[in-house]
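Obj: model holo form, ligand = zinc ion.
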Amino acid sequence: MKRRIRNKILRLSLIASTLFFLIKPVYAQIDASILRRHVQKLSGDEMEGRGTGEPGEAEARGYIASEFKRYGLTAYGANNGFLQKFEFRPRNSSNPHAAIDTTQPVRSAYNVIAYLNNSAENTIIIGAHYDHLGLGRQGGSLDPNPEGKIHNGADDNASGTAGLLELARFYRQNKIKEKYNFLFIAFSGEELGLLGSKAFTANPSIDLNKVHLMINMDMIGRLDSARRLMIYGTGTSPVLENLIRNTSHDFQIKTDSSGIGPSDHTSFYLKNIPVLHFFTGSHPDYHKPSDDADKVNYDGQKDVLEYIQRIIEKVEAMPKLAFTATRNNSTASDSPRFKVTLGILPDYAFTGGMRVDGVTDGKPAAVAGLKAGDVIVQIGEHVVFDIQTYMQALSKFTKGETTSVKIKRGEDTLDMKVVF
Ligand SMILES: [Zn+2]
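Output (holo structure tokens):
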């Protein structure tokens, strides 16, 4: 009898301490229902797909700024506000291969930036783009008839933006003074070519030499039953690959060492900052009006964010990370692996070919007649989908060789003869 009572007491105290453990940290943990609320709000029809420079973008940035303010974060955009303005020219049609139209008037878009000052020497940047394809008139849609349709972009990238807000809330409210400051940035213009992150790194509100790590989240809302998680940038600092492998998780992780990829971390990598980019993978609703909030896996998203928190906890215990270049960016074609160069500046964000951002006078591309805005879709017999396949194709040639390069220029497909 006595022993039974003792056991009972023991059991009760065990339950009580478990309950205490469960209840105690709730004040600032990542909350799947809050993630759902953010995603539903940002991908609601009233945001009209958050097209860069459109009224829906204004709605979304107002929402993000008011959340940052509500958490008690410091405004770190321009003029002591949360916003950082940048200018851009829209593309002239929904054709994703269309060049930026220089006859279009310049328009404005805004990043939303908040700071958590922990009086530390260095800073961790956490970012996610909040813009999407709007009403399908800015290009990039995979709908055969996109114009006028709201592209809600729940996964791309209301999910990353919701994650950004939850991490911002967590680090502000967890009552722990971390060893690094935090800068939280919601980028606009990502879908038009990383415009917001390029604008920030060109005109940063903190010293970019004092950035420990940049963490980017773009599409973290579709964790599937196989729990596949892609992490890019693991080669941008010597410690990162081991660090992410050794941080407890139950994902099927696929890493890519490159700091160059199809999202905003690329802009930071190009400033010699170690980066990690998180992505739960593509799906049939990608860049279609059907990328909706009811298809987002909020519990999975919470798991991804908690994994990111555990990674941050580890990097926080480390001194400022060393940077490693993973790929020779704009001079990729001049690196030792390549015997030839085309002499172009690639648009790293573009997929569906390799879009040329600029050509160098006197180099093979310029001599052949390639121009900024051209999209290379084939070199010789090698089909080009993106920067990786472009570089693979290029590595097959030797100096003096002649080949044909297939490009898209506006509506036209042209074959250019290139001499390396
Ligand atoms: Zn996208």
